[in-house]
């Protein structure tokens, strides 16, 4: 889930719509409500956040260092106009990157992936046997051949890969894919997506790489 912080409803709604087209869950906050939320939200919900986007109108109010006290997710500032002084000030405040608008939503996702990779010293993809999973929106590959997937199934596979070695619950998958504030979608939809994903992977791999345990959740295995 991507968290967008801006005092303008039009900006928040616009970004949420663009992220939704890419199959990425997002949530929008005003500056004051965000400060209250980030300081009190449950740890499990915070783990669903992939990155924080801080709008220019809120940059003086939202403290990146306060975010960093609770999360290691990338913090990216969005600037309306290019300004060296403002850019330097934002970096000094603790943001990980500064991006001038307009910017394509896929570039933002690519920057988030690059920052996360530097923090975690990761390659731009994860490998599980012959299965290679990218974190930048590309379809996964099996023995070098692409495996086209619907965006939700692809995002679930990416989320499982990003949690390699750990088991994630259905609630955690739902929060990462649909957002923790989406009340219009039932959490059980995760089971349907994973069932379809497992079938496609099993047909191409000859085995099921998603290990599931009732009440414990899911994890990828080689």
UniProtKB/TrEMBL annotation:
Keywords: DNA-binding, Transcription, Transcription regulation. Gene3D superfamilies: 3.40.50.2300, Winged helix-like DNA-binding domain superfamily/Winged helix DNA-binding domain. Transmembrane segments: none annotated. It comes from the Bacteria. Residues 123-222 form the OmpR/PhoB-type domain. InterPro entries: CheY-like_superfamily, OmpR/PhoB-type_DNA-bd, Sig_transdc_resp-reg_C-effctor, Sig_transdc_resp-reg_receiver, WalR-like, WH-like_DNA-bd_sf. The keyword Transcription applies. This is Response regulator transcription factor. It comes from Aquamicrobium zhengzhouense.
């Amino acid at each position: 889930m991507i968290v967008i912080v801006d005092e303008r409803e039009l900006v928040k709604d616009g970004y949420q719509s663009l992220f939704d087209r890419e199959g990425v869950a997002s949530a929008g906050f005003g500056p004051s409500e965000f400060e209250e939320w980030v300081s009190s939200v449950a740890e499990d919900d915070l783990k669903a956040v992939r990155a924080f986007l801080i709008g220019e109108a809120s940059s003086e109010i939202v403290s990146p260092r306060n975010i960093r006290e609770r999360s290691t997710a990338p913090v990216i500032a969005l600037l309306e106009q290019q300004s060296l002084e403002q850019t330097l000030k934002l970096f000094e405040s603790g943001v990980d990157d500064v991006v001038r608008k307009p910017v394509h939503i896929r570039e933002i996702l690519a920057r988030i992936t690059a920052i996360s990779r530097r923090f975690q010293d990761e390659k731009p993809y994860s490998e599980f046997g012959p299965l290679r999973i990218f974190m930048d929106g590309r379809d996964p590959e099996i023995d070098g051949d692409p495996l086209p997937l619907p965006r939700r199934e692809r995002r679930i596979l990416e989320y499982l890969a990003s949690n390699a070695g750990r088991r994630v619950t259905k609630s955690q998958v739902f929060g990462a894919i649909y957002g923790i504030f989406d009340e219009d979608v039932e959490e059980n939809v995760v089971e349907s997506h994973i069932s379809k994903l497992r079938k496609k992977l099993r047909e191409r791999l000859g085995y099921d790489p998603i290990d599931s345990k009732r009440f414990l959740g899911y994890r990828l295995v080689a």
